[in-house]
Amino acid sequence: MKKIDKNFEKILFNKTAGSAELLEKLLIYFSKKVKGGESIRTEIDLAKKYLSHFAVIENNILSMENIILSNNQESILKSLSKILEVNRNTYKIIFNSIPNKIKSYSKIVTLSNSKTVYEVLKLWHKYNDKIEVTICESQPECEGKILAKKLLKAGIKTKVVLDSETSNSLEKADLLLLSCDVILKNGDIVNKIGSRNAAIIAKYFKKPVIIISSKDKQINSNRFRIKGRNTIEKSLFERVEKELIHQIVTD
Known about the structure:
The chain is 49% helix and 14% strand. The protein is of the alpha/beta class and 251 residues long. The protein has two domains: 6-91; 93-249, Rossmann fold, CATH 3.40.50.10470. It has a six-stranded parallel sheet with strand order 3-2-1-4-7-9, with helices on both faces. α4 packs antiparallel against α5 (73-97). The radius of gyration is 18 Å and the shape is globular. The termini are far apart.
């Protein structure tokens, strides 16, 4: 097998980006390669091997496999652009689908680094410029700090707290807002470790747990298995039972 391009390798083994952000990075990378007259067959196979536990990537990879069969550069680029456009438009649809009562809330707790959460919170801030976001830092990679920097740059009042401060933060908050990597057939979701603990605490304090996600993160199974990752990385994801979730909002 040919040597993996360093930029592509960074996408494959990225430990801090969420699945929606990884998909966007893949689409942009694939488009650049195709524009340069190169094949993306090897890269698609590698993405399947290392990232297909993310439902949004697995589902879109299936579409890409069909796209490259045409072997027509213009057709492939047009299709990749369309997938990217559709995925970028999902955030507005998701936000508009959130009940107005929920959107009236101002004190939001989240964790880790999710592009879906980031994009929806930017829209939320336009709707209600009083929102305040508390982000649990999310050990061991502390992705929460990455999300916090982006939200602060967008003008949203944001602070990062230790994971051990989750309980105190949720007691004072209006809701817990999470995205997810997978929506299982039975309504459970899979997300970064710490999500289940946060959901349990939120339920104890009678605060709604809102999951925001694109529909293409749904799978027709109640089992979740991480492929192509080491044992430590596999331990960074966990299931959150549907009984802990107030509502899953999709596009």
